[in-house]
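This part of the workshop introduces the protein records we will be handling. The structure tokens are whole numbers drawn from a learned vocabulary of backbone shapes. The record below serves as our worked example for the rest of this section.

===
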Amino acid sequence: MHIAVAGNIGAGKTTLTRLLAKHFKWEPHFEDVVDNPYLDDFYHSMDRWSFNLQIYFLNSRFRQVLQIRESGKKIIQDRTIYEDAHIFAPNLHAMGLMSNRDFENYASLFELMENLVSAPDLMIYLRSSIPNLVGQIHKRGREYENTISIDYLSRLNERYEAWIQTYNKGKLLIIDVDNIDFVNKPEDLGNVINRIDAEINGLF
């Protein structure tokens, strides 16, 4: 079984992935942030490194999805291959930070990969307002995220909402994270777990 957690930067994907993995005894697969050789360069010079970064993520995520499918285990994944292709890469292209040539190359590669991977059994989307995202990003204090602008986050949020409205590859659970605290309030986490339980029990 493959569960995936999607959402904007700072929405709480990694934290929720850890909590759910612990509760359900799922194996967590996290986004490769620490070892990503392009991330720091990208945030300092987006137009120079956008294509490199997106190809790195696409490669990493594709490999991850293949491993998930081959493992036969119950796995929860922090961020999906769809987010790179439907949100981050098109946003960089629209902002003029990725050339037409690079974007077309990227989109063609994703299309090929998409035909070879299965969608998650359940997609969990964490919906968040911009103020909440900004607060969470500041709280965790990653140095390379200090230069992220509110405009950039807003553009991403708009694309997330547009993508999730048309998502039809499998079961979808939308969780509004603005007014819940699944880290410090056990009842909030319990509510999330109950909603996921209801979705999963309908899978089989």
In short: The chain has one domain: 2-201. The CA atoms of residues 58 and 85 lie 8 Å apart. The longest strand covers residues 2-7.
